[in-house]
Structures are given as C-alpha cells and as structure tokens.
Amino acid sequence: MTALRAGLGLKTEHYDDAARCRADGMWFEVHAENYMVVGGPRRAWLEAIRREHPLSLHGVSLSLAGAEPIDAPTLGALASLVRELEPALVSEHLAWSRFGADYLPDLLPFPRTQATLQRVCEHVAQVQDAIGRPIAIENPSHYLRLEGHELGEVEFLSAIARRTGCSLLLDINNVHVSAVNTGASALDYVDRFPADLVSEIHLAGHRRDGVHGDRLLIDSHDAPVAPVVWELFDRFVDRAGPRPTLIERDAALPAFSVPMQEREAAQRRLATMEEAIA
Amino acid sequence: MSAGMQEFQSSFVKALLGASEPTLPWSRQPGFDVYRNTVLRGAIDALAANVPSVHRLLGDDAFDAAAGAFVRARLPRDGRMVRYGAGLPNFLASFPLVAEIDYLPGVAALDLAWIESHLAADAPRLAPADVFALTAEQLLHGRLVPHPAARWLSFPVPAFTIWRHEREERRLEDALPWRGESALLTRPEGTVVWRAIDAGEMQFLAACANGRSCDDALESVLDAGSGFDLAVSLPRLLQAGAFTRIDGDAS
C-alpha cells in the first residue's frame, strides 16, 4: 500500500467529491460510530470510498478512561467494522464518556492517577484484543485545570503505549487549545511528545469562546487550521519526520475544495520532508 | 475499579446535568460550561438530525426546549447516535409545550422510521414477477417475509400527510381532511420511499411479519372487517419493495 500522507475527515456532504478525488497519498477518516449500521446506502458509500482510498476509523465513544466497563455492543460493532473495512488506521481518545447506563456525547477529562492509568491500559488491551490490531490514542482538548494529577499527559500517554503496544495520535490543535485553556506550554508539550510512538497527526481549527475570548479556546473544528497550529506542526514533523496527517473539518462545512487546500498544504510539507530524508 | 475514579466521574456527571450545586472547585471554572454545553448540544443536534421534520415544524427554539427536556430525561445509551430518539414520539405527546400538537408524535415516529429504513440490512426485493410465477396454492400457503427496510405505521390523525409535505418541501393545502392514516416506508433502490397504505394493507403486513401464511394473513384482515383485495394490494406492496422473499409451506 502507498504510504499515507495527508488525509481529510470525510463528511457525508462531500461523498461525491471524495469518491472522485485522485490526489496522491490521499486517505479519509470517519467517525466509526456513524457507520456502525448493518446495511443501506451509508455503508455502500463508505465501501465505495474505501475501494479508492485508505480509510481510518476514528472512535469517539469507547470511553477508554471510563470507570465503567467498555460498552460491549459498541466494541462488537467496531470489531465488525474493522473486519469488513480493513482500515489503515484505528484510533480513539484519552477520555471518558459513559457513566452508568448513559452516554455523554463529549470527551470528558479526569485526574491522571496511577489507578486510572491501570484502568485505561486494561481498556486499550481489551479493545486491541477484540479488533485484533493495535489502536492509536489521541490527546483530547482540555477546558479545566483539574487537581489530583499524578502524571503529566505526555507521560501518561507514553506509559499507555509502552504497556499496551498501542501508538499515539497527536492532535496538534488540541495541544494548542489545551495549553491556552490550562496555562501550559504547547511548545514544551510538542517537544516532549514521543515521536517514535506517533502513528497519526490531527490538524483542525478552533474558535474563541463568546464570553471569555482568547482565554478560553473551543476545539470547534469549524474553521481553518490556525497559523500557530501549523507552526507547531512544522516543529513536530521537523523533529519526528513525516506522519499521516489529517485535516479535520466537522462544522460550518465549506465546499470540499476548501479543506482540500489545507490538505494540500500539509501534503507539500510532508512531501518536502520525505525528499529531504531520501 | 478505582473508587476515586468512580467518585470523580459520578460528581462530574451530576454537575454536568445540573443535579447538584456547582460546589466542586473545577465546576466553577469557565471551562466547565464548555463540557456542559457540548454534552447537551451534542445530544440535541443528534436528535435534530434524526427527526428533521419535527425540527422544521417546531423551529429552533421550541425544538431545543422539547429536545433538551428529552435529553435530560433520557440520555443516549451509547455512541451510536443514529439510534438515539426512540421514545421521543411518546415524550412529545406528553411534553406540555407541544402536547397539543396532536400530529407531532406521528411525525417523529415517521422520521425515526425513515432512519431505521435507511440504515436497515440489505436484502433482495421480492418482485411481482416472482410471485406471479407461483401457483395460487403456493402463494396462499407461503409466508411473505417483510423486507428488513420496510416500516409500516398508522396514526389517528393525518400525520403522514403532514410529514410527507415536510419531506417533499411542499405546502399543505388549507383544508386537510382530519382523519387517520397509514404509511409504508421502503428502500427498493437504495433510497427510502414512502406511500400511503390502507388499514387492510397495514394489517396484512403486520400479520405477515408475525409469520402467518398468506392465507392466514388474508383471513385475519378480512375477520377484522377491513376491506382488502389481495389481487390489488399484493402487487402494490410488492412493487413498493415491502417483502424480501416468500418461504414455502414447511408442513
């Protein structure tokens, strides 16, 4: 298979453009939960895209950092999808979203303790066993300064990867948003992130909160990738080398050509780097 | 499981859903509202996507009020949000702000049936020619199996006419006859289509879905007093893609 370079989050509104797209190194990522269906045109569309391009399944609801057990029907549906679609990449978030019998549609934060680390590792191992392959874990956006952390996020993610054999998905927009919202250094985070464990990079846009302005950034995926995020991306790939890089655009959706321009910008950076390495 | 983890997540959920005063230090930070809004907005937006006709009929403000109350009463059960909203028709029938809109539960039920049909398993469609090739005896003793994407519903009010006008972006005539209706949704060529059916066809489909032979299904419809002509209705239902196959008499 051709090496994955820059890809794009696939939205239903862009199916026809995506199916026609023949850009070199192109791949698409979808939210796995949206395709956990037994049949119908939605699955047929995804099959058609998959015949032309590598696919990445990005989960949002497994609640790896949840106190609750992993939801068995969702994990079973993910395993079926992986078996049927043979995606190039599979990923999830370092977050929780289930409590009791309820699902809370968000990526919720938690104090990073040794006990939680143990729990997350058990969940990651369970998922990897169920789908028969390693996954990548993504750093989420943070909006709170929580007390009780025993480990930094970079150390926490590195420990999960070491113990379970999973890889990491570095979302550089999330790094910037979290750094602003919690008063941390994005440069320090990116510089300390373990390059050898990174199998995928996410780039997306954010916006300022309507009330708190620049002090509270929202990971909204409704805008172009910000210049500061591009700078962090350059800094990371300069050190780490090229990695499959995804442009995410989920809201205020423009024509396919608009995120494709950002995808081309990422592609040029990755191609330049590959030439330099060669 | 770690008790600390359980305790933190329990208090986080209570604070998110407004079930307790924001007494914990983090729940008073401005960023906490981002989580609160995202959870509520995410669930409301998923409902809006699943019941678009209800959303358009109510408008943003009334929909957000009704959907927000539903979300607080019944959070999603898992991340497969395309399945979220079962129970919404009954909830709307008793939610004070919209309970007097007597066709709204039916419109919601039709929206949800559309999604179910859209996402149902693929299966061949039993064509009229397949059935016409059978002898009368084979047909009457056979069991017609409804297609996985077929959904049939009936209402005491003209909810189907109102729903289909929303879907087809057509204006309703001023004088809408206020009477009960039945509807059939199918997916014959990959796209969900709909048509009005009569009470007899509705009962016939239900009897077939219960595993009755064509003969038995026919008898139950006629016993119920509904006018029903198999020679007229069966080709209509087959043409719509209501059945996937006919199983032979096992006896």
Secondary structure layout:
The complex is a heterodimer of chains A (278) and B (251).
Chain A: E1 6-9, H1 15-20, E2 28-31, H2 41-52, E3 55-58, H3 72-85, E4 89-93, E5 96-99, E6 102-108, H4 114-131, E7 136-138, H5 153-164, E8 167-171, H6 172-182, H7 186-192, E9 198-204, E10 207-209, E11 213-218, H8 227-240, E12 245-248, H9 257-277
Helix pairs in contact in A: 4-5, 7-8
Chain B: H1 3-16, H2 32-50, H3 52-73, H4 88-94, H5 104-119, H6 128-132, H7 136-141, E1 143-146, E2 151-155, H8 159-167, E3 181-186, E4 193-197, H9 199-209, H10 214-223, H11 230-240, E5 243-247
Antiparallel strand pairs in B: 1-5, 2-3, 3-4
Helix pairs in contact in B: 2-3, 4-5, 5-8, 9-10
Characterise this structure.
- The complex is a heterodimer of chains A (278) and B (251).
- With 278 residues, chain A is α/β, with parallel strands linked by helices.
- Chain A has a domain of 191 residues: Divalent-metal-dependent TIM barrel enzymes (TIM Barrel, Alpha-Beta Barrel), CATH 3.20.20.
- Chain A is built from nine helices and twelve strands.
- In chain A, strands 1-2-3-4-7-8-9-12 form an eight-stranded parallel β-barrel, surrounded by four helices. In chain A, strands 5-6 form a two-stranded antiparallel sheet. In chain A, strands 10-11 form a two-stranded antiparallel sheet.
- In chain A, 50% of the residues are buried.
- The model of chain A has no long low-confidence stretch (mean pLDDT 96).
- Chain B has 251 residues and is mainly α.
- Chain B has a domain of 132 residues.
- Chain B has eleven helices and five strands, in the order H-H-H-H-H-H-H-E-E-H-E-E-H-H-H-E.
- In chain B, strand 3 and strand 4 form a beta hairpin.
- The longest helix of chain B has 22 residues.
The averaged pLDDT of chain B comes out at: 93
What is the H/E order of chain B? Answer: HHHHHHHEEHEEHHHE
* Unreliable stretches covering 5 or more consecutive residues of chain B: none
How many angstroms separate the termini of chain B? 55 Å
Oligomer: heterodimer
CATH topology of one domain in chain A: TIM Barrel
